[in-house]
Amino acid sequence: MEFRSALPVAVLFGGVIGAAIVGVSDPKSVVDPSARVSPVGAALVAEAAAATVEAVSWDIPVVRNASVDRFVDIFENKQSDRMALYLKRSGRYEGMIRAKLRERGMPEDLVYLSMIESGFNPTARSKAQAVGLWQFIQGTGKRYGLRIDGYVDERKDPEKSTDAALRYLQDLHNQFGSWYLAAAAYNSGENRVARVMREETGSEKGKEEDFWRIRRRLPAETREYVPLMLAAALIGKEPHKYGLGDVERYLPVPTEVVEVPGGTRLGVVAKAVGVGEKELTGLNPQLVKGMTPPGNNPYGVRIPEGRRTQFAANFERAREAAAVEARVEAARTARVAKAARPTRPAAKYHNVRKGESLWTIARRNDTSVAALKRVNGLKGNTLRPGQRLRIPA
Question: How far apart are CA 172 and CA 193, in angstroms?
């Protein structure tokens, strides 16, 4: 995987974090506004955050050096607004990511890789066409089981992309024996890190300190990738120390999955479960055309939790209503197209009079002798009085 995200470079050169992520919007614009933190919810989140701060612990080694402190300073001062946005978004996805890391026995603090990759934006896209929370390029995404085609891009699916990213990170850790080296390989590709490790240490496997040993041999972005992750983790775990303790985190949106027939518009599912189409689209960003992929196989669609029974009761009726609407719209479109179609002029004829020739008839009717002969199948130039000629349009 080669340089999926330009986020570390943006930070390095003082640009806005995530400036290279284009064509995306804040997830709060595509979900139910009630998912924002309410005053009561804010108090609960703050209470939970305070408890976390009191019990703060690390499950990856944390190094404080000049490189890490430089990024801490950038996050704390020059780009605190951007860091605050990332912390807000983290409330929606961090719990899910940490749970999956725990299930695999992996360090939970790897969640901060997603922060520096995408700012916890599931629809983020980099200039290198890397996509999603974990910024997969297409080849690596497919290699780790993500469906990517004209209808579905599962790099945008927060849960499926997280599963793929953790499998990839686990493979990298198995190869290199170090989470720092695994992170570097996640950024620049395992082949590059493996080659440098062999040349510098005589082995691909190493320890956390080997990242600092080979760092000078890595590309500029990768050299700063681990320091950037550590800086994000330091602030993310104890934001109150860096002036970000009052940031209100977005609340997770509880969902469940229902199987929907192929070729179904999300608007139909939205009507069946009683939510807006925009909200349902926000829950299913991987369905890039706003519909399940055509075919005989159903596809899992996320709906708000607790709406499964409502979906089962209303879906067929909603689908039939949508089919009627589609037929009416198709008929209307056909009528409009027919009305807009140019009408073919009626055929024009001429009865030959005595003394007329092809040339005089052609001139009077704004055509040519050749055209007259062609449409009337004439071989020669002789005409007879009373002969009926068709005049070309």
Answer: 10
Amino acid in position 245: G
Which residues form the domain of 290? Answer: 255-340
Is-contact 359 316, C-beta < 8 A? no
Identify whether the C-beta of residue 117 lies closer than 8 Å to the C-beta of residue 93. no
For the chain, how many helices (H) and strands (E)?
17, 4
- Together in a domain, 199 and 290: no
Query: What is the distance between the alpha carbons of residues 201 and 210, in angstroms, rounded to a whole number?
Result: 8
pTM (two decimals): 0.75
With contact defined as beta carbons under 8 Å apart, do 298 and 292 qualify?
yes
**From CA 231, how far away is CA 227, in angstroms rounded?**
6
Which residues are designated catalytic?
117
Q: Which of 288, 249, 349, 234 has the alpha carbon at shortest distance from 23?
A: 288
- Are 314 and 272 in contact by the 8 Å Cβ rule? The answer is yes
Q: How far apart are CA 289 and CA 275, in angstroms?
A: 19
10-residue mean pLDDT profile of the chain (393 residues): values are 46 41 38 38 38 61 93 95 96 96 96 96 93 96 97 98 98 97 96 96 95 96 95 95 94 95 96 96 96 96 96 95 87 83 79 90 90 90 90 85
Q: Which amino acid is at 241?
A: K
Q: How far apart are CA 345 and CA 267, in angstroms?
A: 44
Residues 318 and 382 in one domain: no
Residue type, 134: W
Taking alpha carbons only, the member of 38, 36, 26 closest to residue 86 is 26
Residues 173 and 310 in one domain: no
Helices (H), 35-157: 39-54, 66-73, 80-104, 111-118, 138-143
Specify if 1 maps to a domain: no
| Integer Cα distance of 118 and 89 in angstroms | 10
Select from 104, 101, 97, 99 the least CA-distant residue to 118.
97
3-class DSSP state for residue 349?
strand
d(CA 67, CA 231): 9
Those residues whose C-beta lies under 8 Å from the C-beta of residue 77, and which sit 6 or more positions away, are none
